[in-house]
Amino acid sequence: MDAFKFLREHHAEIVDAWVNKLLNDQSSPYCREPEAELRQLVNQATDAFSLVLNGGDWDDLDAFISFIARRRLSQGFKLSEVQKAFILYQQVVTPILIRETRDEELGEAIFLLGNCISQTVGRFSDFFQRLYEESMRQQAVMLAERKAAAVIQENVRIKREMELHKKELLLLRQNRLAALGELISNIAHQWRQPLNLLGLFVQELSMTYKKGDFSAEYLDANVGKMMKTINHMSKTIDDFRDFTRSDKEKVDFRVLEVIKKAISLMEVSLNVGQIKTAVVSACDPVVNGYPNEFSQALINIMINARDAFVTQKVSSPIITIETGLERDRCVVTITDNAGGIPADIIDKIFDPYFTTKEPDKGTGVGLYMSKTIIEKNMGGTLSARNVDGGAQFRIVL
N or C: which end of the chain has fewer CB within 10 A? Predict the structure, then answer.
């Protein structure tokens, strides 16, 4: 894929969408910036991203990072606010990639874009932090006689907060990319059988025509079969596209609907391991939160169960997901029959980077991010315990 050509053709669309997102975010200082001034900066950033995505030329983007870091620091912007502005570029470009890119190039294009944004945020964060620390040092010198101790203490606190935010951002990005990679692989498998079916339908049409048995009724029947297959393939892409969209704000959503979509996205991976799923619903709760993030949390837990089935060589693996209400709160449990979690590690499974898997098979990020999504982002709780024959994860929202 010619990334530079793609971005040039959609330059105006990308700039307009990016500017609108920044201006419409009332919680951000960008909404108070003059549109003409903001549009000029977004134009420069878009051009610089094009050079990176086309040939790996970082000169213009590094120059822009240096300029914008100094500007935003002098204007009192927070590190997270400018990081979010860069990440918005990925949110703007990703739907266009999915819409315009050929299927065989989509995975590479998404990876290229994600890697570019990851490096950009990292470079900006490092540069911004160095500028900020230098500013703090200069201020400490000027106020040394009166506030030296207070300035140093505040600087340490801010630095820790910045490091924590940077770490959480990195973990979320790692988990998101890992999930996207797995889902892309699932789509490739899900499409293989429908494509084979379409090939057989086309061959059958040709053979029937040559035999002289071709009729309008026969054509209508086979067109119906082919369209049903194509619609199934289209739904697979729609589900994947929905998953890649970042939730902007909390919304009311039906828990069962998100559970079924998460299982659908994992379908091929679970089928390969002959893993059955069962959904038991005493009710269909509606909760307020981030449906795509909730789906990601469920997928992380199911991936963990799938890997446990393989490790424990379970003969009849099954994942059971139950929903219900307790004291007007939604409760979702995800239970497997993989033998349970060893007692010496059950208190550590939600720690970042904790894993019992080989380095090339697990990062220890998935369950940590699931807990972060449920508890920090959605105000609920996520816990784990051993039950008869397996492990159970309990979500309360």
Answer: N
